[in-house]
Amino acid sequence: MATLEVKRVFKTFEGLKSDRFYVLDDVDFKISENEFICIIGKSGCGKSTLLNLIAGFTKPDNGEILLDGKAIEGPSAEKGVVFQEHGLFPWRTVKQNVAFGLKLAKRKDADQRADYFVDLVGLTDYKDKYPSSLSGGMAQRVGIARALATDPKLLLMDEPLGALDAMTREKMRVEILDIWQKKKKTIIFVTHSVPEAVYLADRVILLKDGQVKLDQHIELKRPRQVRTEAFQNYVHELEQLLTDCDDNVFSE
């Protein structure tokens, strides 16, 4: 569990042509422990840049990011990251991929923890298989298990479902929520899809032109029913604020 503070963060474009000087412009918000936060916005609004700053892969030009009151100085085991491309090692089995970070940390219980998290994502029967034999959804589950295995305080997910077909994506949303509820992690989830954000999030943070334009609590009970009027009202409100987005921003 973790509390995250993003305090007046600025990040400039580096070597890119843009009509804006800052990719992130005075971004400021706080996330409490065990919150599920979705960050939405059109391409180029700063979503992935913000996630990379929180992960510690890059540093802000101004401002600071604090995890449990301590400045984030770089990547660490406190932050697990799941990307759209799963990034599994093709020469390692499912279990070996999940155990990789544990082995690096010289955890004596690496094998037991790997078995536990492989089972958590429903892949026990595939633990000795290689990534080439997995579907896209299975591979993403392995990536999630690998990120969770080292027991990070914060789980960062950068469009992890973006490359999946609609049916697999819907199933994975349910599984991600189930894992979140079981493991009580703080999650920041970047997505292009407004319906996906409303389905998953406690709060939706909308970025536009590098700034936080809305920080919206989603006051809907779980499991959420996407066809209800209340659900669709949230979707409509958020989409209205993104009317200048590309036509395919909300595609599933």
From TrEMBL:
Domain ABC transporter, first and last residues per copy: 4-234
Presence of the UniProt keyword Lyase in the record: no
Q: Which GO terms describe its molecular function?
A: ATP binding; ATP hydrolysis activity
Matching InterPro entries? AAA+_ATPase (IPR003593), ABC_transporter-like_ATP-bd (IPR003439), ABC_transporter-like_CS (IPR017871), ABC_transporter_ATP-bind (IPR050166), P-loop_NTPase (IPR027417)
Cite the Gene3D superfamilies for this sequence.
Answer: P-loop containing nucleotide triphosphate hydrolases
What domain of life is recorded for the organism? Bacteria
**Keywords, ordered alphabetically:** ATP-binding, Nucleotide-binding, Transport
Q: Name one Pfam family in it.
A: ABC_tran
**Keyword Transport among record annotations:** yes
**What protein is this chain from?**
ABC transporter ATP-binding protein
The upper taxonomy is: Bacteria, Bacillati, Bacillota, Clostridia, Lachnospirales
